[in-house]
């Protein structure tokens, strides 16, 4: 598994908070680094993917483990 | 603090064709798949994540003084976006309470007619999903046909009219939405009627909906007369109410016809569908008013917000009724099948009583358009 520069715990948060927090947190890492996001809101799946693309970042991987959605986003 | 608008209010505006400007802030894929529609509705999309701290993305697209209704999936993101817009100087912004989820669940009752021996027939329009259900009321009794999951709406309506729901009827085993008929019958002590040919795998008791077994509502008897009309499903059964109204279920819509493939049997059922549309229905009076279980575009809503047409007129103008022979009918049906509705198999399983998802899950399963018609 790739090394994340930072892990954001957005579990239990409803839309729009997972994306809002992701947007803020990604500003804290360097370009090319990876932000790992954990969320439980089902809407986060398509919204995070869409946000990543619109921001020019790259969704390197995603997984679902025991009801937790995990995303690895490489900062542009 | 931005103001909210309730789904009921938005529904009335759409039915009354009032000019309405909507900003949908869901992601663009979700927006493209399914959105609020209306003759008088102008709608644009800008995802909420582009409106978090600033609203530059809206520059030139919305006038700061114009009225805007902001819509999202469940009502939180729209509130956030509406507030950001107000901070940026927009003066007339509302957010839709509960978002598309609430919109998908809203039912708007419209009176179709007073019936010959007293009593009335109502159509419940589910604007967010294009589902139509019905309530026939006579004396102190009511029958509900093709009820949606939101059983409280029918119960409240019955209470307002001072009637008891004695019968709930499904014209077929639904695949696009979760039926509320069984639950509604349970809540009101009524009987649930379902075509036996669609009920082979169900896990509950029901009354068979069959020809020659009329259902009576009230003492003055509105006769609900079942007419076997397979094709969308093998059990699909139409209802003739008061010898004037033909409830076609998902067999015949105003602009299109039902699809035969949602239970995986397109090839087998396309012949039944043709027989029903080109022979069984043909023998009925042209004067019957067709009342379908779905519509696919807002253009089908009449001035009063109802969806209805004369059977004779549909034989003139419905694209699905113009095939010259069996082969061209088969080609038209099989070449024009839209993608299958979201979760149609789990919805069928739920309607058969095989699985019992939580309400939250049921809402998710029903997200999206109904897609029960052939797009001929």
From TrEMBL, chain A:
Keywords: Transferase. The keyword Transferase applies. Signal peptide: none annotated. InterPro entries: TusA-like (IPR001455), TusA-like_sf (IPR036868). CDD domains: SirA_YedF_YeeD. Residues 8-32 form the UPF0033 domain. It comes from the Bacteria. Transmembrane segments: none annotated. GO terms for molecular function: transferase activity. Belongs to the sulfur carrier protein TusA family. This is TusA-related sulfurtransferase.
Automatic annotation (TrEMBL), chain B:
Coiled coil: none annotated. GO terms for biological process: glutathione metabolic process; hydrogen sulfide metabolic process. PANTHER family: BETA-LACTAMASE DOMAIN PROTEIN, PERSULFIDE DIOXYGENASE ETHE1. Residues 16-112 form the Rhodanese domain. The keyword Phosphoprotein does not apply. InterPro entries: Metallo-B-lactamas, Mito_Persulfide_Diox, POD-like_MBL-fold, Rhodanese-like_dom, Rhodanese-like_dom_sf, RibonucZ/Hydroxyglut_hydro. Gene3D superfamilies: Rhodanese-like domain, Ribonuclease Z/Hydroxyacylglutathione hydrolase-like. GO terms for molecular function: hydrolase activity; sulfur dioxygenase activity. Transmembrane segments: none annotated. Keywords: Hydrolase. It comes from Geomicrobium halophilum. PROSITE patterns: RHODANESE_3 (PS50206). This is Glyoxylase-like metal-dependent hydrolase (Beta-lactamase superfamily II).
């Amino acid at each position: 598994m790739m090394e994340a520069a930072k892990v954001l715990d957005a579990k239990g948060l409803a839309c729009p908070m997972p994306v809002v927090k992701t947007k803020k947190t990604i500003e804290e890492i360097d370009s090319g680094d990876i932000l790992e996001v954990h969320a439980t809101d089902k809407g986060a799946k398509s919204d995070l993917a869409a946000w990543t693309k619109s921001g020019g970042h790259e969704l390197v991987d995603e997984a679902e483990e025991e009801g937790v959605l995990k995303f690895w986003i490489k900062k542009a | 603090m931005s103001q909210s608008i309730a789904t009921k209010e938005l529904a009335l505006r759409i039915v009354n064709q009032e000019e309405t400007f909507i900003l949908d802030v869901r992601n663009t894929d979700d927006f493209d798949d399914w959105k609020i529609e209306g003759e008088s509705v102008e709608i644009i999309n800008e995802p909420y994540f582009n409106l978090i701290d600033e609203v530059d993305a809206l520059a030139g697209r919305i006038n700061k003084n114009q009225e805007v209704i902001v819509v999202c999936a469940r009502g939180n993101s729209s509130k956030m976006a509406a507030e950001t817009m107000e901070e940026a100087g927009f003066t007339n912004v509302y957010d839709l309470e509960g978002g598309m989820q609430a919109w998908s669940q809203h039912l708007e009752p419209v009176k179709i007619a007073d019936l010959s021996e007293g009593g009335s027939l109502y159509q419940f329009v589910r604007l967010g999903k294009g589902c139509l259900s019905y309530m026939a009321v006579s004396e102190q009794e009511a029958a509900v046909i093709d009820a949606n999951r939101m059983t409280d709406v029918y119960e409240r309506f019955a209470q307002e009219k001072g009637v008891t729901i004695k019968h709930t009827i499904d014209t077929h085993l639904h695949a696009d939405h979760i039926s509320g008929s069984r639950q509604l019958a349970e809540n009101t002590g009524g009987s649930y009627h379902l075509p036996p040919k669609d009920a082979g795998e169900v896990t509950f008791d029901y009354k068979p909906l069959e020809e020659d077994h009329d259902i009576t509502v009230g003492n003055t008897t509105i006769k609900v007369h079942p007419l076997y009309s397979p094709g969308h499903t093998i059990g699909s059964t139409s209802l003739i109410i008061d010898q004037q109204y033909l409830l076609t279920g998902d067999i015949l819509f105003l602009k299109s016809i039902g699809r035969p493939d949602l239970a995986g049997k397109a090839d087998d059922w396309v012949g039944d569908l043709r027989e029903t549309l080109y022979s069984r229905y043909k023998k009925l009076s042209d004067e019957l008013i067709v009342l379908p279980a779905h519509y696919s575009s807002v253009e089908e809503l009449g001035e009063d917000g109802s969806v209805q047409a004369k059977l004779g007129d549909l034989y003139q103008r419905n694209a699905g009724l113009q095939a010259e022979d069996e082969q061209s009918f088969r080609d038209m049906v099989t070449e024009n099948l839209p993608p299958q509705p979201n979760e149609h198999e789990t919805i069928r399983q739920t309607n058969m009583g095989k699985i019992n998802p939580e309400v939250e899950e049921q809402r998710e399963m029903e997200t999206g358009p109904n897609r029960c018609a052939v797009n001929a």
